[in-house]
């Protein structure tokens, strides 16, 4: 039986406060999210897989300098880039992920290559880059990954650190991109990609590439992609917690996702959000901060994008 498809995407929970958001930038963000939805929708409308749809959606987000992943990745405190990405196929819980990598144009493709070309799930360093080369993935130089906004954020963060005035403004620190999809065959998939947190230490790894923290998919329950304070998401095993509450406690996904973000994440001082889809096609996109770049399209419906 053919069921309808659903695709949800996010461009991170680190949105600019309304007061600082220009109408031009707001329009550019909505337009970028709409392009991403269209790219993923094209795959799903041709009876493509959820796995292919989240790959294309995240690739498109990574190529978009407005969001913190791929081309628009934030800088470490040393002025370098270290990116994390993961992908999970709800059919049989296959997964692939990379952490702390630089130079690969689309980290989500490398995560997928880890899943499809190795027996491993999470890879770092030269071993990960070797897979990218073997798979013929595109590499880019530092200039490609340089964006003035991200550089300015690093400088202001370093200055605030030096002055002892560092706040925890999510707009300056956060960002990540992700996608979750349900295809017409009833399969779920999730993918997440990030530059991490502005001014992070070299070697710091967030929740995005950790299966069960920032990324998760199982056809029996749901697909999840998270964005926010990575350390908090790892400590709460956020994505897996939603799956577990559905499987073991019979809780509806929407309720589980809301509780984890609004209660549990808030209780340990974390900020952020997530997007998730369950096997029946329900979508939830809770966040506990000012906003989250996000969008959703359902089979036969008009796409919707939102920021606040
Ligand atoms: N979760 C990402 C990380 O901790 C950052 C973010 O989504 O804001 O690396």
From TrEMBL:
Gene3D superfamilies associated with the record: (Glycosyl)asparaginase
A GO molecular-function annotation: peptidase activity
Binding-site list for substrate: 204-207, 227-230
Pfam families the record matches: Asparaginase_2
Residues with site note (Cleavage): 175-176
Location of the active site: 176
Name this protein carries in UniProt: Isoaspartyl peptidase
Keywords annotated in UniProt: Autocatalytic cleavage, Hydrolase, Protease
Swiss-Prot/TrEMBL GO biological process terms: proteolysis
CDD domains the record matches: Asparaginase_2
């Amino acid at each position: 039986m053919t069921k309808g498809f659903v695709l949800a995407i996010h461009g991170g929970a680190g949105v600019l406060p309304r007061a600082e958001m220009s109408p031009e930038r707001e329009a550019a963000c909505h337009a970028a999210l709409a392009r991403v939805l269209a790219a993923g929708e094209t795959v799903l409308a041709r009876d493509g897989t959820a796995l292919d749809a989240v790959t294309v959606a995240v690739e498109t987000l990574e190529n978009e300098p407005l969001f913190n992943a791929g081309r628009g990745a934030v800088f470490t405190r040393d002025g370098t880039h270290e990116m994390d990405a993961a992908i999970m196929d709800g059919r049989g819980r296959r997964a692939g992920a990379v952490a702390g990598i630089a130079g690969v144009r689309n980290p989500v493709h490398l995560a997928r290559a880890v899943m499809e070309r190795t027996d491993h799930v999470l890879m770092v360093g030269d071993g990960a880059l070797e897979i990218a080369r073997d798979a013929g993935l595109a590499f880019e130089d530092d200039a490609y990954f340089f964006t003035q906004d991200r550089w300015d954020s690093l400088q202001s963060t370093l200055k605030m650190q030096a002055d002892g005035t560092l706040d925890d403004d999510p707009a300056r620190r956060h960002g990540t991109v992700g996608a979750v999809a349900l295809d017409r065959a009833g399969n779920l998939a999730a993918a997440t990609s990030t530059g991490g947190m502005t001014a992070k230490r070299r070697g710091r790894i967030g929740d995005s590439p950790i299966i069960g923290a920032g990324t998760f998919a199982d056809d029996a329950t749901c697909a999840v992609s998270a964005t926010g304070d990575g350390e908090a998401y790892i400590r709460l095993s956020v994505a897996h917690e939603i799956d577990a509450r559905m499987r073991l406690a019979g809780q509806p996904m929407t309720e589980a996702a809301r509780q984890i973000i609004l209660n549990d994440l808030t209780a340990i001082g974390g900020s952020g959000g997530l997007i998730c889809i369950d096997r029946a096609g329900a979508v939830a996109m809770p966040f506990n901060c000012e906003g989250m770049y996000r969008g959703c399209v359902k089979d036969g419906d008009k796409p919707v994008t939102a920021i606040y």
